[in-house]
Specification:
It comes from Pseudomonas gregormendelii. The chain has one domain (6-251): LmbE-like (Rossmann fold, 3-Layer(aba) Sandwich). Helix content is 36%, strand content 15%. It is built from 9 helices and 7 strands.
């Protein structure tokens, strides 16, 4: 499967800003998505994906007092292959530090937030899908509400984690929701590949959006890339623009 390249981000007509279906997505409130007292578990392929997926929803759930658990499958250290500025050794430490700062900017209760690091190899998750599912299942329990990347996001790590998380949630008896990240940046011609019937919109107020955008900018290693080597930033301007939308979309 082709991995979406953000070189396509220069195209003006992308799904996130051009699909007519976006206006007709039903709104879901937080209490319906995550019932009172339920624990929310966010499973991300790399540090930072949790903010891109549902940084607004995390704020809403925290304000309502829901117990939260984050699982990051990799340390994100292979973001820039061949880079000296952002070597794997440096990123193995730096990416996690950036995530701590991003979650602090979101207002997450860092003293009580449970955050599990999987330690799997970045950019190789598709080779370990069964192990991923087993690992995730160990940290889930019946009644959890799980959020993970969409299994058709067209990023190999995202897709593998989405499939593994779905299997683990089914095995344990947890509710499961998928969240697209890169899929929104496909050309508008791909909009019919989106499962619109499953899409639900979580509305965010102005302050929640502002905190999410501020948190996104905590990922300094992802904002500039390394132009001398032709390595584009993993968080280009167009993705940062989408982070300022007054809603998030989940597939239920």
């Amino acid at each position: 499967m082709k991995t979406v390249s953000f070189s396509e981000s220069s195209l003006p007509a992308q799904i996130w800003n051009s699909a007519a279906q976006l206006d007709n997505i039903p709104v879901i409130n937080t209490q319906t998505l995550v019932p009172p007292g339920a624990r929310a578990v966010v499973i991300s392929p790399h540090p930072g994906d949790e903010v891109m997926m549902c940084g607004g929803l995390l704020q809403l759930l925290s304000a309502l007092g829901h117990p939260l658990q984050l699982l990051s499958m990799t340390d994100g250290s292979a973001s820039y292959p061949g880079s000296q500025q952002w070597s794997e050794k440096r990123l193995s430490v730096f990416r996690s530090q950036e995530s701590v700062e991003a979650l602090r900017r979101l207002g997450m209760p860092m003293h009580s937030l449970k955050w599990i690091r999987g330690g799997f190899t970045d950019n190789a998750l598709a080779e370990h899908e069964a192990q991923l599912a087993d690992f995730i299942a160990r940290y889930l329990r019946p009644g959890d509400v799980v959020f993970s990347t969409w299994s058709e996001d067209r990023h190999l790590d995202h897709d593998a984690v989405g499939r593994a998380a779905a299997k683990a949630a089914k095995r344990v008896g947890a509710a499961f929701n998928e969240v697209p990240i890169r899929a929104w940046h496909r050309p508008i011609r791909d909009r019919e590949q989106i499962p619109w019937h499953r899409a639900r919109k979580v509305r965010l107020d102005t302050w929640t959006v502002a905190r999410k955008s501020h948190a996104t900018h905590a990922y300094a290693s992802q904002l500039d890339g390394e132009p001398a080597l032709g390595l584009a930033p993993l968080l280009p301007r167009v993705l940062l623009e989408r982070m300022r939308l007054p809603y998030e979309i989940v597939f239920v």
